[in-house]
Amino acid sequence: MATSKKILTEPLNLSNPITVQVLGICSSLAVTVKLEPAVVMGISVTLVTAFSNFIISLLRNTIPSRIRIIVQLVVIAALVIIVDQILKAFVYDVSKQLSVFVGLIITNCIIMGRLEAFALGNKPVPAFIDGIGNGAGYGMILIIVSLIREFFGSGKIWGFQIIPDAFYNMGYVNNGLIILPPMALMMLGIIIWVHRSRVKKLIEK
Amino acid sequence: MENVLNIFIKSIFIDNMIFAYFLGMCSYLAVSKTVKTAMGLGIAVTFVLIITVPVNYGLENYLLKKGALSWIPGMEEVDLSFLSFIIFIAVIAAMVQLVEMVVEKFAPALYSELGIFLPLIAVNCAILGAALFMQDREYENVIEATAFGLGSGIGWLLAIVGIAAVREKMKYSNVPAPLKGLGITFIVTGLMAIAFMTFMGIKL
Fold first, then answer.
1. ipTM of the predicted structure?
2. In terms of residue numbers, what domain contains A80?
3. Among A26, A180, A203, whose Cβ lies nearest the Cβ of B26?
4. Domain count, chain A
């Protein structure tokens, strides 16, 4: 039991998929302008990672290693199609905002990375937990970045206004730069900086 | 013709794959340590994009889109667009394999230069991203789609060679320890992205 707890919590901090393993940066930045799409994206990636880990782990002894990439891609693509259809059915406007980035979960390096690194060598249940943990670690960074960007960029959190009108009347202006793509990169750079100065052993030589 | 040129310029500078959409970041970060390898990967990505975008464009318009199957009598109403993810990724994986074999046969020098990067391209988000953007933006004909593919590839090449050059120089500078490596690369990329934003609004 102790080990499965470790598998679950390690990706949240010491082996965080974004800040430490550098996986899945591609889709993580474009969806972080607002909190809501970021949360939806985090949940979708967690589900896809967990289930693809589980399925590939079940099949791990029957897949010939030469064609494993294409088998993995097919499993992932099928799961992503399911997620895409569910999002379109239940949260249509969020799925419009995410646009191509739902499809890009397929090539999200987190999923491939975890399949290669973990699912191919472990039993289905730990693989499933590993998928949940890594998805949560990914979602956590997404939520932090999008909280900061939505608060400073448009004065709102989850679409509700946080900064009162009185502030705007006194001359406060939202920071327009923070909504633009470059600031997402810098924000992530700063998060990595803070994380590494707290956890010294992650510092690169 | 003007429109084609416009799409080409736009996809290099304004809708740059890395600076505006963050696509292909994983390999961008992993392979940008030296200019030479960055150049190799950039060329390989451009090459694959020129091939896969038109192929996927054809599939989208004659197989997947609603009404695309009207060349078969009685199939006018069929809408297969939910299959597009799986078809696109299959085409990309197959094309990468094909390109790899062709390059190995006809240009062995280039093949050994590109090495492991070629197979890795199959899971590069920029390639699938380009296919999905092509679907999203509804280009009018295959020439426009190819111009978009070529432009995105060159834009990606520019970005990765640029960051590789900066990182080579940065080895000699005194970066705070926790910021070394990944952190400073992100911040430099952000600065480069701000520089690229000056191109915004340019129209030919």
1. 0.83
2. 2-202
3. A26
4. 1
